[in-house]
Amino acid sequence: MKRHYKRFEVNVEREKHRKIRNEQKGGFTCSHCRGWVVINEYIGTANRNHCNMCLWSKHVDEKKGDRKALCQAGMKPIGLTFRIEGINRRGEIMLIHDCAHCQKLSINRLAADDCQTSIMAIFEASSRLSPVVKQRLAGGGIYLAAGADKHSILIQLVGYEQAKVLLDPTV
Q: CA 132 to CA 146: how far, in whole Å?
């Protein structure tokens, strides 16, 4: 049994070194869609932890930025929320991820090159989340963006004028 634990530790260390090598090359391969994900401080993605196309992440942190999670499973994007910017003020859109293995919930910032179609698909799909998942979010103090938030989300993604057109094509 002890040998198995040591082998697990070696695999975790090997994974950390592989990740560091990939980051030094300027990105990583998405564990979900297998696409190449660019990490670049000049476009604001130096601390990126999710794929810009499918928006899946990987469970690498126990606490934000510590890279100490042993789980290492994929984290499915399940919804959107907002950063709180003060009393009754919403800030930037954030992704909500749910670990496919241990069910840890986490919130991550969007990046400028994240796929807007994928973001909106996740927003639309979040209305069909099970009551159990919605209760887990509420229990964790995580606000799940809903239909009434669509206008705010579109404004942040595409700007006010384009959001008006998307919400009312007769404009």
A: 16
For the stretch 115-139, pLDDT in tens is 999 999 999 999 999 999 999 999 9
Residues 6+ apart with CB under 8 A from 45: 38, 39, 52, 111, 112, 113
Neighbours of 123 (CB within 10 A): 22
Q: What is the pLDDT of residues 11-29, one digit of tens each?
A: 666 666 666 555 556 888 8
What does the angle CA 91 – CA 57 – CA 6 come to, to the nearest 5 degrees? 135
Distance from first CA to last CA of the chain, Å, rounded? 67
Cα–Cα distance for residue pair 60/40, rounded to 1 Å = 19
Question: What are the tokens at 169?
Answer: 């094509």
